[in-house]
Automatic annotation (TrEMBL):
SUPFAM superfamilies: FAD/NAD(P)-binding domain (SSF51905). InterPro entries: FAD/NAD-bd_sf (IPR036188), FAD/NAD-binding_dom (IPR023753), SQRD (IPR052541). Gene3D superfamilies: 3.50.50.100. Pfam families: Pyr_redox_2. Residues 70-242 form the FAD/NAD(P)-binding domain. This is FAD-dependent oxidoreductase. It comes from Exiguobacterium marinum.
Amino acid sequence: MKPTLVLAGLGHGQLEILDRIEEIREHYEVLFIGKCQTVYTGAFPQVIAGLMNSATVRLPQLEPAAERILAIDPHLQTVQTEKGPFHYDRLVLATGAVSRGIGTPLKPMSQALLDRIDSSSQVTIVGGGKAGVELANTCVRTKKVTLYAKRVLPDVSTRRQKQMERLLVRSGVVVIKQRKNDESSEGLVLDATGVVPVNWWSESGLANPDQFIETDEYLRHYQFPNIYVTGDMASALNGGVDAVRSGRYVAERLLGETTRPFRKRQSMNILLTTTGHALLTFGRFSWHGRLPYYLKRFIDSRYVRHYS
Ligand SMILES: Cc1cc2nc3c(=O)[nH]c(=O)nc-3n(C[C@H](O)[C@H](O)[C@H](O)COP(=O)(O)OP(=O)(O)OC[C@H]3O[C@@H](n4cnc5c(N)ncnc54)[C@H](O)[C@@H]3O)c2cc1C
């Protein structure tokens, strides 16, 4: 009898695993727990900017056994869902993390959230990291935008930070260089301050309270090696590019194609700025111009086409 593999959540990494589902099914009885579709975050701002019609990606070739994972018993090897418990021999977690809780959460992302942003004439974005700055740049094309950010893009050089802040202001974004610490709201308040752990991880004994999940160098839970952790859930990973790479790696592990540890790499990010322009960052290196814009559009439309 084949061992049972439970794939939980339609995160970015899981899509990479599902891409190889035919091969995986030769080795495992596969159960998927999660929704049939999700929103690809890379393309989310492009939909807001009117550059793409949809950022929705879909579950390929599988019927979900249940929609929501509620808890896990790693000792009994069961996942609890709204449809009851399921046994696993191996489990891949890709259910992502959640927004911190200021105003309207951006994560988990949904089409309903995109529709809400679309129909709002005024938005306040909290957080000056890459997600917040890209959202401000795209929302300001059709809305009044306020951005609360102590610093704009703290990971890039000071010269680049100043340039990006000038561009935001020139486009009409009201940049308030402080934390948002009152309840007042100017339109729809979007939380772009980053993600935090979800309670069921610690309640299930997978992590300490308010901590991300620790893994070994093979992305297996440090205590329960039959559980793989991908994407934002894993303390060792960082951002969407890592989520995708971790999924590809776990697929290789499940298929017995690799015995090497997961290699962490510096990731490239590209965010939309003014019309027809984007900022590419790679560590402290950054490049602003048209070419990063075309590169981003190419990468994201190819991704959404592939998975939709
Ligand atoms: C506006 C914005 C733009 C971004 N742009 C970029 C970018 O350009 N590049 C980049 O690298 N990163 C980007 N990020 C970060 C990126 O979104 C995350 O790092 C990435 O989504 C993490 O993927 P993941 O696989 O962990 O899970 P997620 O993409 O968060 O997906 C988790 C999935 O699991 C589902 N789920 C949640 N809970 C459960 C449950 N209990 N049971 C079953 N299913 C569940 C969710 O509905 C969702 O479908 C952006 C973030 C934001 C907010």
